[in-house]
Amino acid sequence: MFQKAKNIDAAFKHIRSFTFVALISSAFFCCFTLYKSLKSVEAAQSRVYILESGKILEAYASPRGENVEVEARDHIASFHRLFFTLDPDDKSIQSALAKALYLADGSAKKQYDDLRESGYYTGIISGNISQQIQIDSITVKTSTYPYSFQCSAVQRIIRPTSIVTRKLLTEGTLRTVSRSDNNPHGFLIEKWITLENKDIGVQNR
């Protein structure tokens, strides 16, 4: 009888050990499943789908620190293209400059106001002049904040009788702001000044 009691006690201990191991294994499996699920959700959220010309393109989101220089250069280039690419059409000029001024502070607005008061945009329209810009280089220093930059570009002023080529050099600083539809990169150009803007060539048409 005592032998039976010992066997029952041993069997109970085995069952208890098995149950404990099973519980530990189940808890580990649940934690592992939860971890993998969170990783899968995180990976899915890092994917961005873009609709372009009726096609869905897949892109991947990444931390801003990984590509801050790329975004900063594109922000600066976009601003300069909008500010300096002009056609002899008042609505086109106003639309481009309105978009440009979302990307910069009052220093850009001041240059715009000075050009407008001097009759520059009126001259563009009345003289059937087009102005184009080609960005040569943009350097951004991200070692200190706010980030300082210089932009070197070439302007082409196309008149009915000639094409004037000008060298343009500007500088300023970049401050981070909230992203929006009007400012997708989340930067704001500050203390923007023109260091050089001189003719380097004239071509008769």
TrEMBL record:
It comes from the Bacteria. The chain crosses the membrane at residues 20-38. Keywords: Membrane, Transmembrane, Transmembrane helix. This is Conjugative transposon protein TraK. The gene is traK.
